[in-house]
Specification:
The chain is built from seven helices and nine strands. The protein has 250 residues and is α+β, with helices and mostly antiparallel strands.
Length: 250
Amino acid sequence: MNLYLHLTIKIINTMFGFALDTDNEPEIITLISDVKNIEGPSPIIYKKIRLISVNDISSLKSAIKNSSKTYENNGFIYLIDQQKNILSGTFISNIKIIKSRKNNIILSGFVWCHPKGYQKAWNMKFNDEIKEKNSWKNFEKNELQGWLVYTLRSGKFDSAQENINIQIDGNEFHNIDSFFCKLGEEINGTAGYFGRNFGALSDCLQGGFGVKSITELTWNNHQKSKKLFKTKFKTILNIFEEFNVKVSLK
């Protein structure tokens, strides 16, 4: 008797949708398989974006052409799941069609960008690749802010922990962004968020991000972090001190 083993690998990717900015509930005009060059180093930047495999390209082109008369030619490229629920959106103003070929389009406009790595994190999420802590270690240094924004957008902060004690290890992160990646997971679990810069850390310590109060932070191998972070190390300590968090340096 021959035995056959059938393996099915299911890859679930995110999709995109385009909608005009109408100040009403978003109405998705068409679905898009992939979008290139939508991330950027600056919050707002003029750039060209490539839309790949647009489902209804004629409706998209017509909507953009007519929108300048009513909506000032602004719109959103939404990240959506398989059920077409909107997960997040990227706002684009002054949209123009630069090139159209078959079912692909190149647009230009002022883009309110997410940081590089944001889409990569969502793809990992939908491919079920974020199962345990430290998934962020698969990201390049310049992609870590994208990971941090993903954890903020995808995080659920229903429960509020009180008087918790946490530990971090200076051997497990090597720059400020990876410090925030590690801190977020030690406080809020896998893919957890607890700030992505110093202002955001202060906001998190005021409550509303899964924690009401932290009693003590134990910082193992802190000397390595102190050497790497320089003056920023003292800034971190000052923020915790401001919110009555005891920091034990080991």
